[in-house]
Please model this.
Amino acid sequence: MSIELKHVNYVYSQGTAFQHTALQDVSLKIQDHEFVALVGHTGCGKSTLVQHLNGLLKPTSGQVLINGEDIHGEHTNRKALRQRVGLVFQYPEYQLFEESVEKDIAFGPKNMGLPEDEIHRRVIAAMEMVHLDPARLAAVNPFELSGGQMRRVAIAGILAMQPEILVMDEPAAGLDPQGRDAILGIIRDLHQTGTTIIMVSHAMDDIADLATRIVVMNHGQIAMDGTPREVFCRADVMREAGLEITEAARLAGTLRERGLPVPEDIYTQEEIRDAILRLWKEKVHAQ
Amino acid sequence: MKTERIRTEQVGFTYEEAKHPVLEDVSLKIHEGEFVAILGHNGSGKSTLAKLLNALYLPEKGDVFVCDMNTRDDQHLWDIRRNAGMIFQNPDNQIVATVVREDVAFGLENLGVEHDEMVRRVDEALNSVGMTDYADASPHTLSGGQKQRVAIAGVLAMEPRIIIADESTSMLDPLGRAEVMNTVRGLNRDKGISVVWITHYMEEAAMADRVIVVSDGKIELEGTPRQVFQQVDKLRKLHLDVPHMTALAAELREQGIPISDQVLTVDEMAEEVLRLVCPSN
Model:
């Protein structure tokens, strides 16, 4: 299932003193099985963009197409489309409200009008996907869980609707290293089992580990779009967009500036480690 | 010898209905002008410790002293809170007024500070956090980092000796985090205010004078950032991150390269590599 934005413009509070253009001529096509990281500083338009992907916001001009079908077309079943594009907001655990984990996760499938046994089956499957033990936790009040567990309940609520595309806004924000690794591991598994992932994040090292493509936003426009290798070797464009590159890429850049023969496209810890080992061995051999 | 600002003596704490204590036998001292980071994962007890440091909680065992006042001593409660100001995690939960200036004045109004003095302190506090231009703005128009700076100004107006920041950057983006961290670091340097910086971001702890690592309610490690972060294996066992460059140095040492174990930053790593591989050395 593909998502395509065609020349999308979005203006907040048009015609008032607060008028503000959040997206300007944004065109983007995301194919099946991609893992796209959407990056940019606060106010760059990425949250506005995310809300266009399942029709929460309607472009001021331009089109959003899902499998070639215009989301805002006259005959489009917007509700059905929304179920295929799951949107996980920032701090989704703040939206939990039911008295048990099971009921909270069942809320979406129930609204879809699914039969009881199918709802139950989906709740169990979604809990397993986020590594929450159904036997132990299904009946528990979600507000008795830890922050990281609550976030996994919220994500399971979206997964239970079986979306083909999962859009996540800062899924690891505010979690400690262990909670972050758990959430990112779950997202990695979902991607490997066929879900298309679009993830908004500020954590460049997480992105370097996971994403197949990075879209950089600045001033409501796409500043750069490419593989992590292409994006992380453009420290200049990233800095202009108010973003950092990985420490490994920064180290490679610094060493190159100081005259050492380090490849230009390095961005992971393993690559810079191997490059330094090579330099060291050459020096030892030369002596 | 620098003046002591906070001292905890064998502090223990158990939440109601909990089976196990969240803090056990915690003794620490924080001095005038010190910037101390308390690092730990969720559930380690670090936030409980923060709340014990300005009498939001009272210890179950042991004692906590703030500027030599025991937090058990009811009559010192307001002096303790005025001396040890606290900033919390969520920027949206700390602002009470509809205008920035009034929000900063809130604590002073409660103390009954007279008007001219109040105006002076509010102006000075806003100036110290770089928010003077926003004095008449409505807080909801501010970014997360700006809201946290307003919260800091509210604490500053009380002229505290200590600022306790409990994960005050964890809901901000990298720019907001740097903005808040730099503001507090500056107040620490310029005004000599002691800072207790509670975080799970090791990059922030790396900027402190001293790091205290808390795990399972106990102090596990303590020292300068370099002393603490070179213990790569131990930190990983405690489910904490290690600075990327420190971890890289450890990997290179395993491969037989005699690189320093004191490396924290990209620049330090670059200098080490240059020292080791350049032909002249």
The mean pLDDT of chain A is 93.
